[in-house]
Design goal:
Structural class of chain B: mainly alpha
Distance between the termini of chain A: 85 Å
Number of helices of chain B: 9
Strand order of the largest sheet of chain A: 1-2
CATH class of the largest domain in chain B: Mainly Alpha
Shape of chain B: flat
CATH architecture of the largest domain in chain B: Orthogonal Bundle
Helix content of chain B: over 70%
Helix content of chain A: 55-70%
Number of domains of chain A: 2
Oligomer: heterodimer
Number of strands of chain A: 2
Shape of chain A: rod-shaped
CATH topology of the largest domain in chain B: Rna Polymerase Sigma Factor, Chain: A
Order of helices and strands of chain B: HHHHHHHHH
Order of helices and strands of chain A: HHHHHHEHHEHH
Distance between the termini of chain B: 48 Å
Largest sheet of chain A: 2 strands, antiparallel
Strand content of chain A: under 5%
Largest sheet of chain B: none
Number of domains of chain B: 2
Number of strands of chain B: 0
Radius of gyration of chain A: 36 Å
Chain lengths: 226, 161
Amino acid sequence: MNKLTITSSAQLREALEQFYAATAAPEVIEALTDYFRTHPQLDPEFEADRAIILAMADAAAIEEPADMEQRILAATCGSPRRAIWHGIRLWHAAAAAVAVIAVAAMWLLNSNGTAQPVQQLVAKVDTVETVRQQPAELPQAQPANTATAPTATPQPVDAVQRQPAQQVAAAQPSHTREVTDPEEAAQILASTLIRARQTIAQASQAPAAIDPALNSINNSLNSLRQ
Amino acid sequence: MNATEFQQRIVVMHPSMFRAAVAILGNADDAADAVQDTMVKLWQNADALDDLTNVQAYAFATLRNQALDVQRRRSAHPAVDLTAVSDPPADEPRSPSDLEVIAQIVEELPAKYRQVTRMSIYQNLSTAEIASATGLSNDNVRQILSRSRQKIKQLYQNLKQ
Protein backbone atom coordinates (compact mmCIF):
# COMPACT_ATOMS: atom_id res chain seq x y z
CA MET A 1 0.00 0.00 0.00
CA ASN A 2 1.36 3.42 -0.97
CA LYS A 3 2.15 5.78 1.85
CA LEU A 4 -0.17 8.77 1.92
CA THR A 5 1.64 12.03 1.28
CA ILE A 6 0.37 15.59 1.57
CA THR A 7 1.58 17.73 -1.29
CA SER A 8 -0.72 20.72 -1.33
CA SER A 9 -2.47 23.16 0.97
CA ALA A 10 -5.80 21.76 -0.14
CA GLN A 11 -4.76 18.26 0.93
CA LEU A 12 -3.44 19.65 4.19
CA ARG A 13 -6.73 21.39 4.96
CA GLU A 14 -8.71 18.31 4.07
CA ALA A 15 -6.56 16.09 6.30
CA LEU A 16 -6.85 18.56 9.17
CA GLU A 17 -10.59 18.65 8.72
CA GLN A 18 -10.69 14.89 9.13
CA PHE A 19 -8.40 15.08 12.15
CA TYR A 20 -10.60 17.60 13.99
CA ALA A 21 -13.71 15.61 13.09
CA ALA A 22 -11.98 12.54 14.57
CA THR A 23 -12.59 10.66 11.33
CA ALA A 24 -8.99 10.62 10.09
CA ALA A 25 -7.53 7.18 9.45
CA PRO A 26 -4.15 6.41 11.11
CA GLU A 27 -2.37 6.87 7.77
CA VAL A 28 -3.84 10.37 7.41
CA ILE A 29 -2.55 11.33 10.86
CA GLU A 30 0.81 9.83 9.93
CA ALA A 31 0.85 11.92 6.75
CA LEU A 32 0.04 15.04 8.75
CA THR A 33 2.88 14.25 11.17
CA ASP A 34 5.34 13.76 8.32
CA TYR A 35 4.21 16.96 6.64
CA PHE A 36 4.61 19.11 9.76
CA ARG A 37 8.00 17.58 10.56
CA THR A 38 9.33 18.28 7.06
CA HIS A 39 7.81 21.75 6.65
CA PRO A 40 9.03 23.90 9.54
CA GLN A 41 8.19 27.13 7.70
CA LEU A 42 4.44 27.23 7.48
CA ASP A 43 1.69 29.76 7.43
CA PRO A 44 1.07 30.88 11.08
CA GLU A 45 -2.53 29.74 10.75
CA PHE A 46 -1.22 26.14 11.00
CA GLU A 47 0.92 26.74 14.10
CA ALA A 48 -1.63 25.27 16.51
CA ASP A 49 -2.30 22.35 14.20
CA ARG A 50 1.38 21.58 14.00
CA ALA A 51 1.78 21.76 17.80
CA ILE A 52 -1.11 19.40 18.43
CA ILE A 53 -0.21 16.85 15.75
CA LEU A 54 3.49 16.75 16.69
CA ALA A 55 2.71 16.65 20.43
CA MET A 56 0.53 13.62 19.84
CA ALA A 57 3.25 11.96 17.80
CA ASP A 58 5.86 12.79 20.45
CA ALA A 59 3.67 11.37 23.20
CA ALA A 60 3.12 8.14 21.28
CA ALA A 61 6.85 7.79 20.71
CA ILE A 62 7.88 8.13 24.35
CA GLU A 63 9.71 5.03 25.53
CA GLU A 64 9.73 4.28 29.21
CA PRO A 65 12.78 2.91 31.06
CA ALA A 66 13.24 -0.82 30.59
CA ASP A 67 13.11 -1.51 34.31
CA MET A 68 9.95 0.52 34.95
CA GLU A 69 7.73 -2.46 35.65
CA GLN A 70 10.30 -4.08 37.94
CA ARG A 71 10.61 -0.81 39.88
CA ILE A 72 6.84 -0.61 40.32
CA LEU A 73 6.49 -4.24 41.34
CA ALA A 74 9.33 -3.95 43.82
CA ALA A 75 7.68 -0.91 45.36
CA THR A 76 4.19 -2.41 45.48
CA CYS A 77 2.64 -5.85 45.18
CA GLY A 78 5.68 -7.61 43.70
CA SER A 79 7.52 -7.56 47.00
CA PRO A 80 6.35 -10.51 49.16
CA ARG A 81 7.10 -8.56 52.32
CA ARG A 82 4.99 -5.61 51.17
CA ALA A 83 2.18 -7.90 50.06
CA ILE A 84 2.10 -9.65 53.42
CA TRP A 85 2.24 -6.32 55.21
CA HIS A 86 -0.64 -5.08 53.11
CA GLY A 87 -2.66 -8.18 53.97
CA ILE A 88 -2.25 -7.88 57.72
CA ARG A 89 -2.37 -4.13 58.20
CA LEU A 90 -6.16 -4.20 58.40
CA TRP A 91 -5.87 -5.95 61.73
CA HIS A 92 -3.29 -3.70 63.31
CA ALA A 93 -5.77 -1.24 64.75
CA ALA A 94 -8.03 -3.97 66.10
CA ALA A 95 -5.13 -5.88 67.64
CA ALA A 96 -3.80 -2.72 69.26
CA ALA A 97 -7.20 -1.92 70.73
CA VAL A 98 -7.53 -5.41 72.21
CA ALA A 99 -4.05 -5.12 73.69
CA VAL A 100 -4.97 -1.82 75.36
CA ILE A 101 -8.09 -3.37 76.89
CA ALA A 102 -6.06 -6.33 78.14
CA VAL A 103 -3.60 -3.99 79.86
CA ALA A 104 -6.46 -2.09 81.44
CA ALA A 105 -7.97 -5.34 82.68
CA MET A 106 -4.70 -6.45 84.23
CA TRP A 107 -4.35 -3.09 85.95
CA LEU A 108 -7.79 -3.43 87.48
CA LEU A 109 -7.29 -7.04 88.54
CA ASN A 110 -4.08 -6.08 90.32
CA SER A 111 -5.84 -3.50 92.47
CA ASN A 112 -5.98 -6.10 95.36
CA GLY A 113 -9.67 -5.90 95.98
CA THR A 114 -9.66 -2.25 96.87
CA ALA A 115 -13.12 -0.80 96.49
CA GLN A 116 -12.30 0.95 93.27
CA PRO A 117 -15.37 2.12 91.44
CA VAL A 118 -15.51 1.15 87.83
CA GLN A 119 -17.86 2.95 85.55
CA GLN A 120 -19.65 0.40 83.43
CA LEU A 121 -20.33 2.03 80.19
CA VAL A 122 -19.44 -0.71 77.83
CA ALA A 123 -20.62 -0.71 74.27
CA LYS A 124 -24.29 -0.16 73.87
CA VAL A 125 -24.92 -3.67 72.65
CA ASP A 126 -23.28 -5.13 75.76
CA THR A 127 -25.38 -3.04 78.12
CA VAL A 128 -28.51 -3.85 76.21
CA GLU A 129 -27.84 -7.55 76.59
CA THR A 130 -27.08 -7.25 80.31
CA VAL A 131 -30.25 -5.28 80.94
CA ARG A 132 -32.30 -7.83 79.11
CA GLN A 133 -30.98 -10.70 81.19
CA GLN A 134 -32.05 -9.30 84.57
CA PRO A 135 -34.07 -6.14 84.11
CA ALA A 136 -35.66 -6.37 87.56
CA GLU A 137 -32.32 -6.34 89.36
CA LEU A 138 -30.97 -3.20 87.81
CA PRO A 139 -29.61 -1.10 90.66
CA GLN A 140 -30.05 2.60 91.07
CA ALA A 141 -26.96 4.74 91.15
CA GLN A 142 -25.15 4.17 94.44
CA PRO A 143 -22.30 5.90 96.25
CA ALA A 144 -18.93 4.90 95.00
CA ASN A 145 -17.81 3.30 98.25
CA THR A 146 -20.94 1.19 98.72
CA ALA A 147 -20.53 -2.55 98.43
CA THR A 148 -22.83 -3.83 95.75
CA ALA A 149 -23.88 -7.39 95.10
CA PRO A 150 -23.24 -8.61 91.60
CA THR A 151 -26.35 -8.06 89.58
CA ALA A 152 -25.84 -9.59 86.21
CA THR A 153 -23.23 -12.00 85.06
CA PRO A 154 -22.44 -11.25 81.45
CA GLN A 155 -22.72 -14.23 79.19
CA PRO A 156 -21.30 -14.97 75.77
CA VAL A 157 -23.00 -13.24 72.92
CA ASP A 158 -24.12 -16.49 71.37
CA ALA A 159 -26.05 -17.47 74.49
CA VAL A 160 -28.37 -14.50 74.51
CA GLN A 161 -31.37 -13.45 72.50
CA ARG A 162 -31.84 -10.04 71.06
CA GLN A 163 -34.55 -7.76 72.49
CA PRO A 164 -36.27 -4.77 70.88
CA ALA A 165 -34.52 -1.53 71.73
CA GLN A 166 -37.74 0.13 73.01
CA GLN A 167 -38.23 -2.61 75.61
CA VAL A 168 -34.69 -2.18 76.82
CA ALA A 169 -35.03 1.57 76.97
CA ALA A 170 -38.11 1.19 79.16
CA ALA A 171 -36.25 -1.15 81.50
CA GLN A 172 -33.28 1.16 81.94
CA PRO A 173 -33.21 4.73 80.74
CA SER A 174 -29.45 5.03 81.19
CA HIS A 175 -26.61 2.77 80.08
CA THR A 176 -24.56 3.70 83.13
CA ARG A 177 -24.23 2.12 86.55
CA GLU A 178 -21.44 1.92 89.07
CA VAL A 179 -19.68 -1.27 90.05
CA THR A 180 -17.64 -1.38 93.26
CA ASP A 181 -17.04 -5.10 93.48
CA PRO A 182 -13.63 -5.95 91.98
CA GLU A 183 -14.82 -9.45 91.09
CA GLU A 184 -17.75 -8.10 89.17
CA ALA A 185 -15.48 -5.60 87.48
CA ALA A 186 -13.21 -8.43 86.43
CA GLN A 187 -16.17 -10.37 85.08
CA ILE A 188 -17.36 -7.39 83.10
CA LEU A 189 -13.93 -6.81 81.64
CA ALA A 190 -13.54 -10.46 80.75
CA SER A 191 -16.92 -10.35 79.05
CA THR A 192 -15.92 -7.21 77.17
CA LEU A 193 -12.73 -8.85 75.95
CA ILE A 194 -14.66 -11.91 74.81
CA ARG A 195 -17.08 -9.71 72.92
CA ALA A 196 -14.22 -7.77 71.35
CA ARG A 197 -12.63 -11.00 70.24
CA GLN A 198 -15.90 -12.28 68.80
CA THR A 199 -16.60 -9.01 67.02
CA ILE A 200 -13.15 -8.95 65.47
CA ALA A 201 -13.53 -12.59 64.43
CA GLN A 202 -16.77 -11.61 62.70
CA ALA A 203 -15.00 -8.67 61.10
CA SER A 204 -12.49 -11.05 59.57
CA GLN A 205 -15.40 -12.46 57.55
CA ALA A 206 -16.59 -8.98 56.55
CA PRO A 207 -13.95 -6.22 56.59
CA ALA A 208 -16.70 -3.58 56.63
CA ALA A 209 -17.49 -4.62 60.19
CA ILE A 210 -14.09 -3.51 61.48
CA ASP A 211 -15.30 0.00 62.27
CA PRO A 212 -18.18 -1.12 64.51
CA ALA A 213 -15.74 -3.45 66.25
CA LEU A 214 -13.29 -0.64 66.91
CA ASN A 215 -16.08 1.65 68.07
CA SER A 216 -17.22 -0.98 70.54
CA ILE A 217 -13.71 -1.39 71.88
CA ASN A 218 -13.15 2.35 72.09
CA ASN A 219 -16.40 2.85 73.97
CA SER A 220 -15.37 0.21 76.47
CA LEU A 221 -11.97 1.79 76.85
CA ASN A 222 -13.40 5.24 77.39
CA SER A 223 -15.71 3.99 80.08
CA LEU A 224 -12.84 2.27 81.86
CA ARG A 225 -10.82 5.47 81.82
CA GLN A 226 -13.66 7.25 83.53
CA MET B 1 -7.93 -5.73 45.51
CA ASN B 2 -5.24 -8.34 46.05
CA ALA B 3 -1.72 -8.36 44.62
CA THR B 4 -2.65 -10.34 41.52
CA GLU B 5 -5.60 -8.12 40.65
CA PHE B 6 -3.52 -5.02 41.29
CA GLN B 7 -0.88 -6.27 38.90
CA GLN B 8 -3.41 -7.19 36.23
CA ARG B 9 -5.54 -4.05 36.42
CA ILE B 10 -3.26 -1.26 37.64
CA VAL B 11 0.38 -2.08 37.01
CA VAL B 12 -0.32 -2.83 33.34
CA MET B 13 -1.20 0.83 32.83
CA HIS B 14 2.37 1.97 33.48
CA PRO B 15 3.37 2.60 29.83
CA SER B 16 0.48 4.99 29.17
CA MET B 17 0.87 6.55 32.61
CA PHE B 18 4.54 7.10 31.92
CA ARG B 19 3.77 8.83 28.60
CA ALA B 20 1.24 11.06 30.32
CA ALA B 21 3.73 11.89 33.06
CA VAL B 22 6.42 12.78 30.53
CA ALA B 23 3.96 14.96 28.66
CA ILE B 24 3.06 16.81 31.84
CA LEU B 25 6.54 17.03 33.36
CA GLY B 26 8.70 17.13 30.23
CA ASN B 27 11.29 14.94 31.94
CA ALA B 28 11.65 11.16 31.84
CA ASP B 29 13.34 10.83 35.24
CA ASP B 30 10.69 12.87 37.04
CA ALA B 31 8.00 11.01 35.10
CA ALA B 32 9.32 7.61 36.18
CA ASP B 33 9.40 8.74 39.81
CA ALA B 34 5.89 10.16 39.52
CA VAL B 35 4.53 6.91 38.08
CA GLN B 36 6.24 4.83 40.76
CA ASP B 37 4.98 7.09 43.57
CA THR B 38 1.50 6.97 42.07
CA MET B 39 1.56 3.17 41.97
CA VAL B 40 2.66 3.06 45.62
CA LYS B 41 -0.23 5.34 46.60
CA LEU B 42 -2.68 3.21 44.65
CA TRP B 43 -1.34 0.04 46.24
CA GLN B 44 -1.62 1.55 49.72
CA ASN B 45 -5.23 2.31 48.88
CA ALA B 46 -5.87 -0.98 47.05
CA ASP B 47 -8.82 -1.99 49.21
CA ALA B 48 -10.78 1.07 48.12
CA LEU B 49 -10.09 0.50 44.42
CA ASP B 50 -12.61 -2.34 44.28
CA ASP B 51 -15.42 0.13 44.96
CA LEU B 52 -14.51 2.42 42.07
CA THR B 53 -16.45 2.27 38.84
CA ASN B 54 -13.55 3.64 36.78
CA VAL B 55 -10.21 2.56 38.16
CA GLN B 56 -8.31 3.84 35.15
CA ALA B 57 -9.65 7.37 35.52
CA TYR B 58 -8.83 7.28 39.23
CA ALA B 59 -5.29 6.08 38.53
CA PHE B 60 -4.71 8.88 36.03
CA ALA B 61 -6.18 11.46 38.39
CA THR B 62 -3.77 10.27 41.09
CA LEU B 63 -0.90 10.49 38.61
CA ARG B 64 -1.92 13.98 37.61
CA ASN B 65 -1.93 15.16 41.24
CA GLN B 66 1.44 13.51 41.79
CA ALA B 67 2.87 15.19 38.68
CA LEU B 68 1.51 18.57 39.75
CA ASP B 69 3.15 18.08 43.16
CA VAL B 70 6.46 17.41 41.42
CA GLN B 71 5.97 20.55 39.34
CA ARG B 72 5.27 22.65 42.42
CA ARG B 73 8.34 21.30 44.21
CA ARG B 74 10.41 21.89 41.10
CA SER B 75 9.33 25.51 40.80
CA ALA B 76 9.90 26.07 44.51
CA HIS B 77 13.38 24.50 44.41
CA PRO B 78 14.69 24.66 40.84
CA ALA B 79 17.53 22.23 40.19
CA VAL B 80 20.81 23.59 38.88
CA ASP B 81 22.79 21.46 36.45
CA LEU B 82 26.41 22.27 37.32
CA THR B 83 27.76 20.56 34.20
CA ALA B 84 25.70 22.60 31.75
CA VAL B 85 27.64 25.84 31.93
CA SER B 86 26.32 27.11 28.65
CA ASP B 87 22.69 26.68 29.66
CA PRO B 88 20.59 29.67 30.63
CA PRO B 89 20.80 30.71 34.30
CA ALA B 90 18.70 28.61 36.64
CA ASP B 91 16.43 31.51 37.53
CA GLU B 92 15.39 31.88 33.90
CA PRO B 93 12.28 29.73 33.52
CA ARG B 94 12.43 27.06 30.85
CA SER B 95 9.72 27.52 28.28
CA PRO B 96 7.54 24.43 28.17
CA SER B 97 7.51 22.29 25.06
CA ASP B 98 4.41 22.05 22.91
CA LEU B 99 3.85 18.58 24.32
CA GLU B 100 3.82 19.95 27.87
CA VAL B 101 1.46 22.75 26.87
CA ILE B 102 -0.91 20.34 25.14
CA ALA B 103 -0.73 17.95 28.09
CA GLN B 104 -1.67 20.75 30.48
CA ILE B 105 -4.60 21.72 28.28
CA VAL B 106 -5.76 18.10 28.18
CA GLU B 107 -5.70 18.00 31.98
CA GLU B 108 -8.02 21.01 32.07
CA LEU B 109 -10.68 19.37 29.89
CA PRO B 110 -13.91 18.07 31.46
CA ALA B 111 -13.58 14.56 32.90
CA LYS B 112 -15.13 12.56 30.08
CA TYR B 113 -13.28 14.54 27.41
CA ARG B 114 -10.04 14.23 29.35
CA GLN B 115 -10.37 10.46 29.69
CA VAL B 116 -11.07 9.88 26.01
CA THR B 117 -8.33 12.27 24.90
CA ARG B 118 -5.78 10.65 27.21
CA MET B 119 -6.62 7.26 25.74
CA SER B 120 -6.17 8.63 22.26
CA ILE B 121 -2.90 10.43 22.95
CA TYR B 122 -1.07 8.35 25.56
CA GLN B 123 -2.40 4.89 24.81
CA ASN B 124 -2.72 5.51 21.08
CA LEU B 125 -6.06 3.68 21.07
CA SER B 126 -8.42 3.74 18.11
CA THR B 127 -11.98 5.04 18.36
CA ALA B 128 -13.30 1.49 18.56
CA GLU B 129 -10.83 0.55 21.29
CA ILE B 130 -11.75 3.62 23.34
CA ALA B 131 -15.41 2.82 22.87
CA SER B 132 -14.82 -0.72 24.10
CA ALA B 133 -12.84 0.46 27.12
CA THR B 134 -15.28 3.16 28.17
CA GLY B 135 -18.58 1.62 27.20
CA LEU B 136 -19.40 4.59 24.99
CA SER B 137 -20.58 4.18 21.42
CA ASN B 138 -18.18 4.71 18.53
CA ASP B 139 -20.10 7.82 17.45
CA ASN B 140 -20.00 9.20 20.97
CA VAL B 141 -16.24 8.67 21.23
CA ARG B 142 -15.73 10.30 17.84
CA GLN B 143 -17.83 13.28 18.88
CA ILE B 144 -15.95 13.68 22.15
CA LEU B 145 -12.57 13.39 20.42
CA SER B 146 -13.62 15.93 17.81
CA ARG B 147 -14.75 18.47 20.36
CA SER B 148 -11.66 17.86 22.50
CA ARG B 149 -9.28 18.48 19.60
CA GLN B 150 -11.07 21.65 18.60
CA LYS B 151 -11.02 22.84 22.21
CA ILE B 152 -7.32 22.06 22.54
CA LYS B 153 -6.60 24.05 19.40
CA GLN B 154 -8.63 27.00 20.65
CA LEU B 155 -6.95 27.01 24.08
CA TYR B 156 -3.51 26.62 22.53
CA GLN B 157 -4.12 29.62 20.28
CA ASN B 158 -5.33 31.66 23.25
CA LEU B 159 -2.16 30.77 25.18
CA LYS B 160 0.11 31.74 22.31
CA GLN B 161 -1.54 35.09 21.65
